[in-house]
Request: fold
Amino acid sequence: MKTLEQFLSDYIGKSKGYPDDNYYKGECLSIVKIYIKECFGILPPPSGSGSAYGYWSNFPSPLSEVFEKIENTDTLIPEVGWIAIWKPWSTNQYGHIAIVAEGCTTSTLKNYAQNWTSKVFQLESNKYTHIIGFLKPKSIINDMTDNEKLLLGLINDNGITEGDIRWVIDLKAKQTVPKLEKKVSDLETEISEIKQQLGELTEKYNNNEKELKNCQSSLKTANQTIENISAELETANKEKTNYKSWYESKCKELNELKSKTTLIKNIINFIKSLLKIK
Reply:
């Protein structure tokens, strides 16, 4: 990442847009977005209001990762590299935004800006009128413990800057990314395998469901057949009972007929015997 000095060397005297010169060229927020991206390593977000003032009123993410908001006061002297923000006023509904330069006092703000007196990025001098506050860069170095500073050789003034430390962190992140990408790839492979297994289990489940439905249908048919056979058997039993009654009745009639026949025969024999006697 760039230092402020490198950034100024690259862009002073130029008119810049963001994300490239085809968009909002010469606008105050465009050059500040480039500053945030190239010197702090984050993607500058939209303001959320279509204005420079939105960087204060909305403070959109991820600005809070590298900046803190400092309200303007009569005694405050902002430091080089801070971002100054103007609130809207009667002739400017968008406000203004700039990068604080050296030489500020309690009455004069030195700053680098576009679209104040020119569309070109250049040094300006203003009063603090309408300035609502500043975005102060969070210091990685200041947040370190003494042991961490000693480890990096910062206390011995070896020329290591805030930008250098951010570059080291960015390099570490770049080294970490391939490892994370491999983990993501491995997880995606596992997910793919799980999805395949899930598909196979789903297919087996669906087949089992079909078999179960077929079995239920067969069982229903079998139950219906049993009911039909039971009804037929009941009818047959009734017919059997009726036939038995009819058979017994006929047997009784036959026995009676036999008895009558025997009686008749006896009478005939008796008559015959009488006739012989005569």
Observations:
- Strands lie at 67-71, 83-86, 96-100, 109-113, 122-126, 131-137.
- The chain has two domains: 4-138, 173-278.
- Residues 173-278 form one domain.
